[in-house]
Design goal:
Blueprint (H helix, E strand, L loop, with lengths): L6 E6 L7 H14 L3 E5 L3 H5 L3 E3 L27 E4 L5 E4 L2 H10 L4 E6 L1 H12 L4 E5 L15 H22 L2 E6 L6 H9 L4 E3 L7 H13 L5 E6 L11 E4 L7 E3 L2 H13 L3 E5 L11 H20 L4 E6 L2 E6 H4 L11 H8 L7
Parallel strand pairs: 1-2, 1-6, 6-7, 7-14, 8-10, 8-13, 9-10
Antiparallel strand pairs: 2-3, 4-5, 11-12, 14-15
Helix pairs in contact: 1-9, 5-6, 7-8
The structure holds 6-O-phosphono-beta-D-fructofuranose.
6-O-phosphono-beta-D-fructofuranose (F6P) binds next to strand 12.
């Protein structure tokens, strides 16, 4: 490693997910062993904006491998290009504080900044790189929607949680002969809904990539009734939308650079199915439970490999890249290449084809 590198910074940005601590550990422990100083930045970019950071030692990152969340804290609102400050009239105005952030990082003597996050965090990093900072990225998100990596850690744990929920819904749905619509996170990509819907044997899977019609969903419920199945499980991605319609927005957070929060599609679908078919229907929103808890062994291993690969990039002087998985091999691509892009489910994805083959409807 170049002797110019003496101190690194580490931050976790965006929505938290299981496996973040495993990455922190896999970056910080090797760095300490190489004699580097490590600065942990609190709450993602917010800590850089508000100058909140602390030195990390071995004990700080010991015994955190299995812990969900992030010991550093996170924020999915702070983007140095658009930082919300009170406008003095009860509202908010966005300020560009990128130059202040760059100045602070230089003052603190941080030579390389490790950014662990999703698309928002990488877009933020791309802008800091443009202003002269050196970054290394590690991809995280339960949504699995980050461009150019086939997998992100956190996805496996969230998929296990959502699948377990669908399994449990099965027994109550069949006992009461109901239609149960389970709303699953994932924003504009259907990976989490497709994965857990297929693993949990949902009868209907609704994802943002395949617009649905209410009539098609209702017909699936009726058809199941005709051959003796008196219940139907519908896995609905929060970004699923009717053909010709819009995604359902639950909240607009004006203090966030990415202000749209999706939510509510499960209730809309359940209400419409009940109205059109007369079948008793319920909706269940899994929500943030999907982001919580202990990472699965697969996510722990993946996060550890990603984190250590990021450290290897540092040693090789291969900067401003994001660790990715391609063809089941670890690789790295320029952070700028992934900024502001979303990886959605291809319509001919093998799991879509397999689900269709076993009789699952996509509601179209
Ligand atoms: O990106 C992760 C995610 O959990 C999405 O699946 C979801 O749409 C969003 O974050 C929820 O954001 P918040 O934590 O701000 O409610």
């Amino acid at each position: 490693m170049s002797s110019d590198i003496k101190r690194i910074g580490v931050l976790t940005g965006g929505g938290d997910c299981p496996g973040l601590n495993a990455v922190i550990r896999a970056v910080v422990k090797p760095a300490l062993r190489e004699g580097l100083d490590v600065i942990g930045i609190e709450d993602g970019y917010l800590g850089l904006i508000e100058n909140r950071m602390r030195k990390l030692d071995w004990l700080d990152v010991s015994n955190i491998l299995t812990r969900g969340g992030t010991i550093l804290g996170s924020s999915n609102k702070a983007n140095p290009a658009e930082y919300a400050v009170p406008d003095g009239h009860g509202g908010w105005e966005m300020q560009d504080v990128r130059d202040d952030v760059v100045k602070l990082v230089c003052e603190k003597g941080i030579d390389v900044l490790f950014v662990i996050g999703g698309d928002g965090t990488m877009s933020g990093a791309a802008e800091l790189i443009d202003r002269g900072l050196t970054c290394i990225g590690v991809p995280k998100t339960i949504d699995n929607d980050l461009w150019s990596t086939e997998i992100t850690f956190g996805y496996d744990t969230a998929m296990a949680t959502a699948t377990e929920a669908i399994d449990k819904i099965h027994t109550t749905a069949s006992s009461h002969h109901r239609v149960m619509v389970v709303e699953i996170m994932g924003r504009y990509a259907g990976w989490l809904t497709l994965g857990s819907g297929a693993a949990g044997g949902a009868d209907v899977i609704l994802i943002p990539e395949i617009p649905f019609t209410f009539e098609s969903i209702c017909e699936t419920c009726r058809e199941r009734g005709r051959y003796g199945k008196r219940f139907t499980i519908i896995a609905a991605g929060e970004g699923a939308k009717p053909a010709g319609g819009e995604m359902i927005v639950s909240q607009v957070d004006t203090t966030s650079p990415d202000p749209i929060r999706l939510g509510g599609v499960a209730k809309v679908v359940a209400d419409e199915v009940q109205k059109r078919t007369g079948l008793e229907s319920r909706s269940i929103v899994l929500g943030h439970v999907q982001r919580g808890g202990t990472p699965t062994p697969r996510d722990r291993a993946l996060a550890t490999s990603f984190g250590y690969h990021a450290f290897e990039l540092l040693k090789a002087g291969d900067f401003n890249k994001l660790v990715v998985m391609k063809g089941n091999r670890l690789d790295a691509v320029p952070i700028k290449e992934v900024a502001n892009k979303v990886r959605t489910v291809p319509l001919d994805h093998r799991l879509v084809r397999a689900a269709r083959a076993v009789g699952t409807s996509f509601g179209e």
